[in-house]
Amino acid sequence: MAKIQIITIVANILFILYISRLIIKGKLREEYAIVWVICTVVLMLFAFWRNGLEVMARLTGVYEAPNLVFTGFIFAILIYLLHLSVVASKLYNDNKKLGQEIALLKEEFSKHLAKKE
Amino acid sequence: MPGKVLIVIPCYNEEASLPSLLPELLSTVLPNGYQLEALIVNDCSKDNTSAVAKKHKATVIDLPVNLGIGGAVQTGILYARDNNFDIAIQLDGDGQHPPKELPKMINHHLETGANVVIGSRFLEKEGFQSSFARRLGIRYFHWVNRLLTGLQIYDSTSGFRLFDRKAIELAAVNYPDEYPEPESLVVFSKAGLKIAEVAVVMAPRQSGRSSIRSFGSLYYCFKVSLAMLFSFIRKP
Is B109 exposed, middle or buried (0-12, 13-18, 19+ CB in 10 A)? Predict the structure, then answer.
């Protein structure tokens, strides 16, 4: 086994341990962890299967195998960023509704207090 | 029983203009025996907007986070819906919209039965007409609106607006957040509401400055155009 394979595999194991720790501690929700787990699985696959990249490049018609890595990962990152924008938009809408609801309740509550006095 | 009218005033740091606006507003006599309530929606102001408004006997809703003009107006609309107001009128807190024009808008609503009445500064060229660049932008939105809704709205960015019960119900659940004025017209017209315009005289703002300036205005045009287009495509 080549040096780089060992480094990749060790880094991968550390990464997956860190993700697990985040999930266990409740700092990362499982639905967002899926993409990271898939990334590690893919990296792990190519760490063991050294010729895999060449094979995939030939299959997809990419001349230089590393370009396939860049293309694939940039595409995946873009999709994930879009997903995060969707999450942020949903959070914004939920926050807005909560803020409005709290403000309306506060006003109603102060009216009740004033009536009681 | 006379109807109830809610005046929704979205405010961000308006402590300077409220002391002259509120007494004038609260002494305004509305047609048809309509009862008036002034509602200040304080959008997380950093000054004493809330205290000043309470001192002048307005109902005050303090938003816990800054929601922007759309979210603030919608909060007022929600209040109108939950408290069974017949009409809600949005009026800016900076003194640009004189309360003495309110009867005109209500009368226009009563005469035409329009669900949304917009106070327009361009129908009769009177009063504050805004700067050249801004008028250019407003003409552009007039054109986009005409394209998308077939409506002839000259002052589609005007924040001086009357909502009747039907429009209140709709805006309570569907009102744009950022720069909502032109976009909401697309939403209203798609829902089949009748939109009318009535000439009003506006004043230049008394204090504060516009939220739309320099580079922001390019962003404004782009964002609002996009939002209008998608509101148009979206199913009501």
Answer: buried
Integer-rounded Cα Rg, in Å, for chain A is 24
User: Along the 236 residues of chain B, how does pLDDT read in single tens digits?
Assistant: 678 999 999 999 998 989 999 999 999 999 988 999 999 999 999 999 999 999 998 999 999 999 999 999 999 999 999 999 999 999 998 888 999 999 999 999 999 999 999 998 877 766 677 777 777 888 888 888 888 888 888 888 888 999 999 999 999 999 998 888 888 998 999 899 999 999 988 877 666 666 555 667 778 888 888 888 888 888 76
Across the interface, which of A92, A95, A104 has its CB nearest the CB of B75? Answer: A104
Domain that holds residue B29: 4-233
Is A7 in CB contact (< 8 Å) with chain B? Answer: no
Residue A37 shares a structural domain with residue A84? no
Chain B CB within 8 Å of residue A71 CB: no
Say yes or no: A103 contacts chain B, CB-CB below 8 A.
Answer: yes
Q: What b-and-e string marks burial along B110-134, b requiring 16 or more CB atoms within 10 Å of the CB?
A: eeeebbbbbbbbbeeeeeeebeeee
Query: Could you tell me the residue range of the domain that residue A15 belongs to?
Result: 1-50
Token pair 């709709």: residue? B170
In a domain, A78, yes or no: yes
* Closest approach of B130 to chain A, Cα-based (Å): 31
CB spacing of A100 vs B65 below 8 angstroms: no
Contacts of B11 in chain A (CB under 8 A): none
| Interchain contact, A104 vs B78, CB within 8 Å | yes
pTM for the model stands at 0.84
Does the predicted interface ipTM exceed a cut of 0.90? Answer: no
Across the interface, whether the CB atoms of B64 and A107 are under 8 A apart is answered: no
- Largest CA-CA distance found in chain A, in angstroms, rounded: 81
Q: How many domains does chain A have?
A: 2
